UniProtKB/TrEMBL annotation, chain A:
Pfam family of the protein (one): Ald_Xan_dh_C
NCBIfam families per record: CODH_aero_grp5
Protein name: CO or xanthine dehydrogenase, Mo-binding subunit
Native source species: Pedococcus cremeus
Chain ranges of the Aldehyde oxidase/xanthine dehydrogenase a/b hammerhead domain: 20-135
Highest taxon, organism lineage: Bacteria
Keywords: Molybdenum, Oxidoreductase
Span list, region Disordered: 795-818
PANTHER family per the UniProt record, alphabetical: ALDEHYDE OXIDASE 1-RELATED (PTHR11908:SF132), XANTHINE DEHYDROGENASE (PTHR11908)
SUPFAM superfamilies assigned to the protein according to its UniProt record, in alphabetical order: CO dehydrogenase molybdoprotein N-domain-like, Molybdenum cofactor-binding domain
GO MF terms, alphabetically ordered: iron ion binding; oxidoreductase activity
From TrEMBL, chain B:
Short name of one Pfam family: CO_deh_flav_C
Protein name: Carbon-monoxide dehydrogenase medium subunit
SMART domains in alphabetical order: CO_deh_flav_C
Domain FAD-binding PCMH-type: 1-177
Keywords: FAD, Flavoprotein, Oxidoreductase
Amino acid sequence: MTTQMFGAPIRRKEDPRLLTGGGRYLDDLGQHALAAAFVRSPHAHARITDIDVTDAVDVGGIVAIYTWEDLPGKVAEPLPLLIPHPTLTHGRTGYALARDEVNHVGEPVVMVVATDRYLAEDACQRIRVDYELLPVVVGIENARDGAHLVHEDAPGNVAAHMVQETGDVEAALATAPHTLTLDLAIERSACMPMEGKGVYARWNDEDGELRIYSSTQTSTGVRAAVAAKLELPLAKVECIAPDVGGGFGVKIMHPWPEEVLVPWAARLLKREVKWAEDRREHFISSAHERGQLQKVTVGFDDEGRVLGLDVKFWHDNGAYTPYGIIVPIITSTQLLGPYKPGAYRCEFWSLYTNTVLVTPYRGAGRPQGVFAMERTMDAIADYLDLDRAEVRSRNFILPEEMPYDHGLLFQDGRPLKYDSGDFPASLDKLKKLVGWDDFEAYRAEAEAEGRKVGLGIGCYVEGTGVGPYEGGHITIETSGRVNVATGLTTQGQGHQTAFAQIVAQELGVPIEDVHVTTGDTRKMPYAVGTFASRAAVMSGNAIALATRNVKAKALRIAADALEVSEDDLEIVDGVVQVKGAPTTSMPLGTVAVLSNPLRYAFDDAAKAATQFAGTFDPDKPPVADDEEPGLEGRDFYSPTQATFANGMHAAIVETDPVTAEIRILRYCVIHDCGTMINPMIVEGQVHGGVAQGVGGALYERMAYDESGQLLNASFMDFLMPYASEVPHIEADHLETPSPLNPLGIKGAGEAGCIPVSAVIASAIEDAEGFPITSMPISPVELWELRQRHETGELPSLRHHHGQHQTAAAPSRDQEPTA
Amino acid sequence: MIPVQFDYAAPTTLQEALGVLAEAGEDAKVIAGGQSLLPILRMRLNAPEKVVDLGRIEELRGITDEGSHLVIGAMTTYADVLASSAVRDHAALLVEAVKTVADPQIRHRGTVGGALVHADPAGDVGAPALALGAEFVITGPGGERTVPADEFFRDLFETAVGEGELLTRIRVPKHTGWGAHYEKFVRVAHQWSIVAVGATVRVDGGSIAEARVGLTNMGSTPLRATAVEQALVGRPATEEAVREACAAAAEGTDPPSDLNGSADYRRHLATVLTRRAVLAAAGA
């Protein structure tokens, strides 16, 4: 029997190459290409009155300088609105180069192409752009009040206003025994991949063909978008994603202005052109996410069961909406988590501000939604003096209620219907892992030492693997090498390993023989992209189906050659053999030879497939009527709906009673993504996600001033957790298979980061004894909350279990009481 | 994020470096470890015509024992300091502070002299140098002069080192047998200090005989908390006694307000961190 591959924690095939500097990232390519650089708007909102390039043309090595006036045809039109929605009544997109108005700092205004990036940047500095300043809208409150407008024709700065309701919320709230209202806020953050965006274009003038390399999460998307903009036949454009140093969502947005302009300039100049984003550009001209204000009204009974939930939120979508309103739609639906909300209404406004645009970042609206829901669960527990885990469990959807239809539409326009999950079992596991029931004893011990500790919890459900489809294409060579192609792209997730495990298992070949290619439109032109935790679900299943096809073909050919029934054959370690009689066998490579009848012998393997090589039936054609030459299999996976993964996290934090420093002492994760292809890769994904979540909870924010300048646009000032700040993560798994797909898998890519802000807020609140309603939180903010709490401005929780409200034993560091 | 074009000189002797600087005048910028200068150049916040690299001048690097003093060459890296038993034995506070600087890569490139002349008030070597009463040897076309610590730091990013001059050595009076601790408050390990306090004390018979306390990022320059130092003398090295003496740590300071904390918060931190630093330095 072939070694069990599916489900094995095998080491990642790509790591030796990536860890020893063997990766080839965008900027490693095109060393002799011309370099592009951009003059970007220094103002958040202004009208361009003049552009003077006179001083720049003298810089040696300058090849071209372009403004909007130079752009032809469709290149000069606004960039596409990728995902329209009926409620996105005032969707707006920018131009590849600003036309006459800029709407955020960092918007590209002039493109310079030079023999190298040094000279291109020198020229940029010599270009003078005159602006007439316009009033700036920064922050959700200012956007909402609508005193000034980002786009004159978008009244109230409202891009979209959407309401979804199930049940009668007004009635449920009116008759509920108890109601609570929470005002919540969550700040902006951003993906911050180690490698920024980048694009490198090669125009082949003789053949009229364009090749684009892009650091993208969707090479098929970039290909189609550029072909449309440049009015080229799709057949004349190919796009390849080389090694990509992280995406986290920002690279699913496309086409970025540079992805249109660089190929356009390459064709015009008949030269290779490359642009690699620098860090400052990434901060001010890529995309951010998260920023929302929320108002939650909840009605519940004496047991803490939610009877009605009314959520309003205001979402900051930045200056433009090229990616539609996917993020707030996800917030509004995924907010419900593992709970039955009774009647539910969610109303949101997606608002323009003069800041860089907002598109999905790992978690994509879910961290905000989970924050709202989990803060609400804690508030109910405190109000009724119930255990916080107990309140959650009383609201859970139970396994016997699956599939569970919420009666809402999800981000893919399909019903929000959970396929499987065992939330009570997950909660049990989590409580055991973190020691939920023993925490009060631990708290008492800590308090005796003058330490403040708190326990927090957060639960989520994540719709993963949204459609429309992905494909898999398998070819088996005469050497026995198995080539696998899928069109979505890879940014370090371990696809080369996970997909190879599926093929090795399904086909019965050594994993070393399996070679996976992703994100290359030459190898697989039909694909969507890597986002929404969908790669394993979509491509994994497509590859499994394709492998089953090629296996069936291999067995047909081998059965014929070995003169046995297909049903009696199996493939073990790359050899087709008769079950129970393995001496009657044939290597897969030989099957590949037989699958492709040849006229010419160019090597020994090929010789075996030529016309005089053996016996054949003269009455049959060399390739049977219903077969194709070659040992190939291709298939697509297109599900009717998303599959819903879930997880529950708990953390113990310690807050310094004097400095308000916040430390995570323990971080526990229970994660259920259905059947796991490779548990080690899943854990790695969870760890990385939690690390990003810790960043969002404690460190990251986009500090815009009132004029729309981003004050912390560098790694010196924008804080991210390093290994030194990320706690050890204790993770355990539940495997509730998805009934929706052949492999039973659910997505795992985003999971780790989704509930972290909710969990840390819950733990800090538990340590401090007053509500935490805004994240992220820094020590100075906690210190200021304490001062407001001491003056009575900020009320205590009703039923807090910590003793420190009533004077703990004086500690080493406690300030003397006045 | 690419610097404006500049000329580059890499002299191999101090005299050669001074000559290059004299020739280039105010258009030259000196690069030591480059850990602060390079980001500034890359963001085009500064565009010198000439960059003079001191990295090849052997005589500027190294730590020597001159009896009453340790002499640290300006181009000595943080990593060199950490590897030096002499500094550990005679100026432990410097080791404690340098340990907390950024990350290993930066500690292997960044230099003590470069950081001191850059004079970022959030940098970690200024306050210890001040607290230890270091002397700064500055060399210019006219020869050498020695500036005491309290005259070295003039203002934000401004020191006694003038145009055409170089900081060449730092003379640190030995504090042999003194306890030391650098209490640094940051949110992430590689961050600049939000506030930090360096304390070194000599404990004799259970009470504090002498104390030196320096504050990082509590004003436009590193500061010395002399009132605290005086108040500590003669006190037993106990929680209670030290608490009272450290209460005035933030007096006379003018800390910044920024994304990491208000001035009020920094004053609060300074008091707390001073107490923690002194207690740790005293081994309490």
